[in-house]
Design goal:
3 domains; about 350 residues; DNA-binding; six-stranded mixed sheet; homodimer; Rossmann fold
Chain lengths: ~350, ~350
DNA sequence: CTGTTAGCGCGTTCAA
DNA sequence: TTGAACGCGCTAACAG
């Protein structure tokens, strides 16, 4: 068991200086072709590979981006990390990972950790509970670019890539109206999430196309737990005007809601229909699938976020201040074929 | 926009040497309480945080582990990475990520990359196509511990944590026999995977409990694509003795297989029943779910792998050679309640 | 108790 | 065409 070889070692074996070795390895133009060959040959024999840590250390760049997501076991985020890794590898960047588990404290801690690792940039989807954004101040002070992804904070002057779920929600409501539904409910997520407010906006705009008046009691929130969803469902089903269709926050909420509806002896797609926000492809194989899904394209979104960050990083060399990138991917309604 | 503060900066401002600053920050015992306080106060004011890269650089340890998995968007692996991140964060280790996308070449390249980043250790689930293990030789030579996870190579003297799918398969076959099935087929994955060979072993052992003779033509392989699965299914259904039950490689294969069976007008759970290897919880909500699932506990498995690696890393300091850890998690059959 | 010095591995002047 | 010297930020051995 040995340590990885260094240029010093090569230099000693060849009785030349380390700088010559360094130059030879980099195909410096004013170097003796012979020494270059000798050096490169020995380097190959020793399996020499430059110690990136040392290089990064002196160059003060790590070619590593930090990625902080709430929970990697969620389909949406695992798709995202997959895309981020793909995109950054393509540009010779590495990915340093962290999960906030939707805790603000943990998020803060991870931000500090990746910063101490001197990442070049950060992609982050903020925790549900995050209200305070001070932990990003230091990043700003040190000029480490941050691209917010999907769950974006409501503050100015940031780069972000997010999905506009409003358009998809509008489409969903219109689609339901076209299919004869006149009492459309919304089973929404926590209202502090920007995307939940977008869902509400979309819901309202969708109704505007129709002489139907907006009834706020048709919008209820769940904390995303099964119990929360059941409570929300109970509330909706207690209404005088029971909804015949529901737009639900995501697939898991939809499944829980459908299960509850069935327990209440409602016929799915007859007494009540569902529209989901897509997380998982398997939703189409479920026993009582939603009739439509609002697709959010997590892979494309995350890929875009990575590209934005990498461009910021390359621009940084020319120390031109780039304007804030605010990129929105449009969500889109996908109508499912009915299973026989 | 400034650079992060360094001990040098603090030293200059306080007119003391950098080593004094360093000691003060580390609560060195033989340091003036006053200077210590002054240093720590200033450090706090400047938001000083040690540059881990510099520390790691000179300590020759990075407190970073590399993780290479085939595809992070697969449920099984996203659960794994989630567990690995959780466990390593707990021990102040960071995670450097890579996806092989089941390509041996890419896997090799990523191994080189993480090695050049001087990771302290590696957790890897090898690519389907990997036949050659030379890219791990360098890691061995440099004493970087590797823990193989789930997809383990068939070579001696390695650390690994894997799931024994044989036991679960035995249970599955016995369960099917108990339920009256007498022609049980297996829709297996690529045979070079160790776990596929385990499935076959389990299949054979399961049959041994019964005076039924083993018919090799009841075992077919798919390359995991939908088309491959359909071809495999066609082959099985062409047999004289058509299987009344199938043990399928994983959830996706199972879904494709079920879809194909339905297209062939077979009644699921009547003409033919399915047992799956679990990837996703949602499988229980599908329209025609398998009657049972062999659970592999990816979270626990990955957590264990991380703990093994971290222990190796801590042991390394006492340069005692640790024996090869070969840890096997038992898979387990979970029988699904029939949906009404 | 504190300062000086050296070195981790590398690239990059500046000099020769 | 090459080598010597320096510095990136930090710790540690040694000297005071």
């Amino acid at each position: 068991m040995v340590n990885p070889p260094t240029i010093k070692e090569i230099a000693k074996k060849l009785n030349i200086s380390t700088s010559t070795v360094s130059r030879a390895l980099h195909d410096h133009h004013r170097i003796n072709i012979l020494t270059r060959i000798r050096v490169q040959k020995l380097a190959r024999e020793l399996d020499y590979e430059p110690n990136q840590k040392a290089i990064f250390f002196q160059k003060r760049r790590t070619f590593t981006i930090g990625v902080i997501l709430p929970d990697l076991s969620e389909f949406y985020f695992s798709t995202a990390i997959s895309a981020i890794e793909d995109a950054s590898t393509k540009h010779k960047y590495s990915v340093l990972l962290g999960q906030s588990h939707d805790s603000e404290a943990r998020e803060k801690h991870i931000v500090e950790c990746v910063m101490n690792q001197r990442i070049d940039g950060l992609i982050i989807s903020i925790a549900k509970s995050t209200k305070n954004y001070e932990h990003f101040d230091l990043l700003k002070r040190y000029g480490i670019p941050v691209v917010f992804f999907d769950r974006i904070p409501d503050i100015p002057d940031i780069h972000y890539v997010a999905c506009n779920v409003e358009t998809g929600t509008v489409q969903a409501v219109k689609f339901l109206l076209q299919n004869g539904h006149r009492t459309i409910g919304m089973l929404n997520g926590p209202e502090q999430l920007y995307s939940c407010r977008q869902r509400i906006e979309g819901y309202i705009k969708g109704l505007e196309s129709h002489p139907l008046k907006f009834d706020p009691s048709l919008i209820v929130s769940t904390d995303l737990t099964k119990e929360g969803t059941e409570n929300a469902m109970a509330e909706l089903l207690r209404l005088k005007r029971k909804p015949t269709a529901l737009v639900c926050f995501n697939d898991n909420v939809t499944l829980d809601a459908i299960q509850y509806a069935r327990k209440m002896k409602l016929k799915i797609n007859k007494d009540i229909s569902f529209v989901s926000f897509s997380n998982q492809p398997m939703i189409n194989h479920t026993a009582f699938p939603p009739i439509a899904t609002i697709e959010q394209f997590p892979y494309q979104q995350a890929q875009k976020a990575t590209e934005v960050l990498l461009e910021l990083l390359s621009r940084r060399d020319e120390n031109s201040t780039s304007p804030f990138k605010k990129i929105t991917v449009q969500s889109q309604l996908a109508i499912h074929k009915q299973q026989k």
